[in-house]
Every structure is written in structure tokens, then in C-alpha cells.
Amino acid sequence: MPTETLTPHVTRRRLLGSITTGILTAIGGILGVLGGGAVLSSTVRRQEDWLAASALHDLPDNQPTPVTLTVMRMDGYREALERRTIFLVKTGESEVAAFDARCTHLGCLVRWDLDGQAFRCPCHGGVFDRTGAVMDGPPPEPLAKIATRVDGNRVMVQA
After folding, report:
1. Potential cystine with 121: which of 93, 103, 106, 154 (Cβ 3.0-4.6 Å)?
2. CA angle 131, 68, 50 (to 5 degrees)
3. DSSP state, 62?
4. CA–CA distance, 122 with 109 (Å, rounded to integer)
5. Residue 93: which residues within 8 A CB-CB, separation 6 or more?
6. CATH topology of domain 50-158
């Protein structure tokens, strides 16, 4: 009587199927880790950062003063330094308003026109008043306001 061995035959089709299953499992695992990281990172709240912008006594009353801040921000997985210009306006004894210096039309940097008492965009003719409201030109919105607080003699702005 002939005896048959019960060893399975590894066919080319079964080998390719196993390789394909392994590759798809690896891709699924990688996508699961990346997707899980994205979901978990969005649930972790970033702590509010406050930056020292100026000394309160250095700001003239009701006169916009340009200040350049250096802010660290995440660019993917690396930190990048970003320079950002804002205007501080001392509106009271210990009250300060802050505005982003980027025009809301196309992001050009505005400047304070001392003679005209207005913020002016040099590129497209946008004009904003002392409170950041649009007076003339193509800007669709007022200058962006930035949260401020006074801590002792230091003016702090929210990054």
C-alpha cells in the first residue's frame, strides 16, 4: 500500500496571497497608527500662550505702536520661528488693544499713518481707523484683534 504524506503543498498562488495579506496588514496598521494619532492629538487642547509684547509705560496714549514678536509654531513635526508684527494701542490707564498688522484683503503689512491718523495698506489702498475698522478700500473685514492683558507693567498678548 502506498503511503501518502500529509504535508501541504506551497503553491505559488498561496505564497503570493500570503505576501499580499502581509503587505495589506502592514498598510492597515500604519494607517491606524497615523489616524489614531491624528484623532488623539486633536483632542489634546493646546495651552494658551501669552507673550510679553511691551512695557506699559513705553506705549504712548491712543497712539498705535508697532511691535514685532517672535513666535514658535509647529510646522509638521518640527518647530519653526515665525516673526509677527502687531500694533499695540494704549486706550486707558491699564488698558491696551492689539491688532494684527496684516491687511484682511491679501495679507500685506499695514503701517500707521501719523498725519492721516489711520492704518494704511501700501499695496491695495486699504484704510483702517484707530480701532481697526475698515474706512476705505478693498479689505472685507476689520484688522484682526488680538487678546491682551496687563500683568504688572508688562503688556501680554495671546500667541
Report:
1. 103
2. 80
3. T
4. 8
5. none
6. Rieske Iron-sulfur Protein (2.102.10)
Write the burial class of residue 139 (CB in 10 Å: 0-12 exposed, 13-18 middle, 19+ buried).
buried
Q: Residues near 51 by Cβ (< 8 Å), separated by ≥ 6?
A: 69, 71, 156, 157, 158, 159
- Kindly state the greatest CA–CA separation across the chain: 113
Beta carbons within 10 angstroms of residue 87's beta carbon: 23
Model pLDDT for residues 68-105, shown as the tens digit of each residue: 888 887 777 788 888 888 999 988 888 888 999 898 88
Residue 125 is which amino acid? Answer: G
Q: 0.70 cut: is pTM over it?
A: no
The strand pair at 134-136 and 154-158 is best described as unpaired
| E strands in 76-153 | 78-90, 96-100, 111-113, 118-120, 127-128, 134-136, 145-146, 148-151
pLDDT tens digit sequence for 20-71: 999 999 999 998 888 877 666 655 545 558 888 888 888 888 889 898 888 8
Residue among 68, 63, 82, 58 nearest 157 (CA): 68
